[in-house]
Amino acid sequence: MALLGLVAGLLLGSFIAALTLRWPAGRSIVRASSTAGGSIHFARSQCDSCGTTLTARDLVPVFSFSLLRGRCRHCAAAIAPRHLWIELAAAGIGALALGLHPGLPGIAGALFGWGLLALAILDAEHFWLPDRLVLPLLATGLLAAAWLAPPLPERLIGAASGYASLALIALAYHAATGRKGLGGGDPKLFAAIGAWLGWQLLPFVLLLAATLGLLLAAIHAARGRAIGRQTRVPLGALLAIAAWPLWLLLPAGLSSTAPLAMRFP
């Protein structure tokens, strides 16, 4: 199961790398055919430097990057290492989720992790948490209660308290300073995390995210970068990074409301 999760993660990581690169730039991931059928297919990947359409041997996750030594086979331009790191991160998420929690819980946890990975990248690189990713993550977290623990009431309380806590902090900061301190996507993401983890783990997610934020600020200061009240920090990315390892600590199991065929195969 861990190997299956690793392979799935490599493939999803390649997609996430392309998605987080093309979407903010206004480039489509899919392309509609102009023929009568109106079919939908994935847009072909191209080299960012020379524009050459890449073939399958250029797109094997991790291995193509390694064999080509991080350079385009056609123009020898350097390939951004972000592709490699995203693929490895997604592979690690899949391997850990399915290795530690085989079956349906691991599949759900891997999907949760891959969604958080995409959101963390978009927030870290563009300070952007799009509703088209956050809201489905919230919805699937609530729907998962039909099969997986924790139960739906804990998930509903987690979603509501996650959103309310950050939204109130944002309102209080704006009232006190007249400035906007949090983006609108952060409370929604915290709500989605609450829908997946339940309300009990939310304080630990926030504490770990704040600790990571302080560490990030310390690293910037050590590198000579000025840190002040106007310094922007990708809180959504920090919340995502903090949330998924805590999911691994949850007692994975099927909900008591899951069908008997799932609980007693």
Helix share bin: 55-70%
The structure class reads mainly alpha
Average pLDDT rating: 84
Radius of gyration, CA atoms, in whole angstroms: 20 Å
Total helical segments: 10
N-to-C terminal Cα separation, in Å? 17 Å
Strand arrangement, largest sheet? 1-2
Question: Quick one: how many beta strands?
Answer: 2
Structural shape: globular
Beta-strand content: under 5%
Q: Could you spell the SSE succession in H and E letters?
A: HEEHHHHHHHHH
Mind describing the biggest β-sheet? Answer: 2 strands, antiparallel
List segments where confidence is low: pLDDT < 50 over at least 5 consecutive residues: 32-41, 255-265
Helices and strands, with pairings:
Elements (H helix, E strand, L loop, with lengths): L1 H21 L7 E3 L7 E3 L20 H5 L14 H19 L3 H23 L4 H13 L8 H26 L7 H13 L4 H21 L12 H15 L10 H4 L2
Helix pairs in contact: 1-3, 1-4, 3-4, 4-5, 4-9, 5-6, 5-7, 6-7, 7-9, 8-9
Overview of this protein structure:
It is built from ten helices and two strands, in the order H-E-E-H-H-H-H-H-H-H-H-H. It has 265 residues and is mostly helical. Strands 1-2 form a two-stranded antiparallel sheet. A hairpin with a 7-residue loop joins strand 1 and strand 2. The longest helix is centred in the middle third of the chain and has 26 residues.
Short description:
By secondary structure, this protein is mainly α.
List keywords for this structure.
mainly alpha, two-stranded antiparallel sheet, 10 helices, 2 strands
